[in-house]
Design goal:
single chain, alpha+beta, Arc Repressor Mutant, subunit A, Alpha-Beta Plaits, 2 domains, 5 helices, 38% helix
Length: 150
């Protein structure tokens, strides 16, 4: 199984929507025997196509009332500056996602905070302390009519 075929793609779609589905139900939904389905899932895991399973958490239920996407431009475009920035983002619990992107800025972040005041503190105290920060643009999430992240 080198490239996912249509059955493996169907398995991946179902698992991305419900990683806790039983093998029996998954097998029934994709039209395989339970043993053949389990072998496919295990092979997808072994090959690194499936890298893990996780819980989807409701941010509001955990006290998160502020979500924003933040673009970050750096004043230095060196490997060392990027590595330092990425280490800083790894250590920040508010940063739920950090993507190195192309375009006029280097990074796109998904930031979650308790409220606007907590975000302002993160923005000023944490991000503002990074020596190679050139520009920051914050886009506040007002609603999420579709969010397929697992």
């Amino acid at each position: 199984m080198s490239e996912p075929d249509h059955i493996s793609e169907h398995i991946l779609r179902i698992l991305s929507q419900n990683g806790r589905i039983s093998n029996l139900e998954l097998a029934d939904r994709v039209g395989l025997s339970p043993s053949a389905c389990l072998r496919r899932v295990q092979e997808l895991e072994r090959r690194g196509v499936i890298t893990g399973y996780r819980a989807v958490i409701d941010p509001a239920a955990t006290g998160i009332g502020f979500i924003a996407y933040v673009t970050v431009g750096l004043s230095r475009h060196t490997r060392a500056a990027q590595a330092e920035f990425e280490r800083l983002m790894q250590a920040a619990p508010q940063v739920r996602e950090c993507h190195n992107i192309t375009g006029t800025v280097e990074y796109l972040l998904r930031v979650e905070a308790r409220d606007l005041a907590a975000y302002k503190q993160f923005h000023t105290e944490y991000m503002g302390a990074f020596p190679y920060l050139d520009r920051l643009t914050t886009m506040v999430v007002m609603g999420s009519p579709k969010d397929a992240r697992a």
